[in-house]
Fold this protein.
Amino acid sequence: MTFSVYAPGPRLTIVAATDDADTAGSALAPYRRPGDNGDGLAAFSGMPVEAVRSYCRLHGGVAQTGETARILLQALPSEADAPPAPAPAAEAPITDSRAKADKIREQVAAGTHDFLGRPLTPEQLRLDDLTPAVIEARRVAAEVERPLVPGLGYGDTSPRVAALEWRAEQAGRAASRLSLVDRPRYAAHPLRDEAIALRDRLADAKRQALAEIARQA
């Protein structure tokens, strides 16, 4: 699992992670930034460093990190700097919360509850990321399925290979975004069948472009 760390402005650190059920159920979820980022990614900011560490542990730890990402993560605030929570009046018995956590994760994946297990309001349930993804996929599919128009090459790359690389990249990005169609909340979506067909067309366009690139090598 790979995630990005960058700072678009002073004192603002962004973590861009895969937009899936695991991320929605992780400690990063409360810090998600509004808006659809596309490419199957979600952006998070304002989180303490412990939230990022928890996300990393959820995916087996960190195998490699860049120097810039390390510096930005080290600069994040710590939960230890927050005021201590008041002590409970009586110590409650420790219960196994794994079953509840699994249920909440299923509800989040189904799109009916938020990351705390609270039912979404009718207005929140109307939020739809699949429709704009299908609209964009229609445009990209029409672009990558038309006759190839070689432009400018670069370095040792010929104009035709450069155009094929661009086609494979565009088709791959649009097909990846349509992974939304696999979420349970879109099972009855009116554009679901078209989304599946578009994803297949885009994947086929990417395969054909990569195959021709291989033949040109």
Observations:
- The first strand starts at residue 4 and ends at 9.
- The two ends are 30 Å apart (CA to CA).
- Residues 192-216 form the longest helix (25 residues).
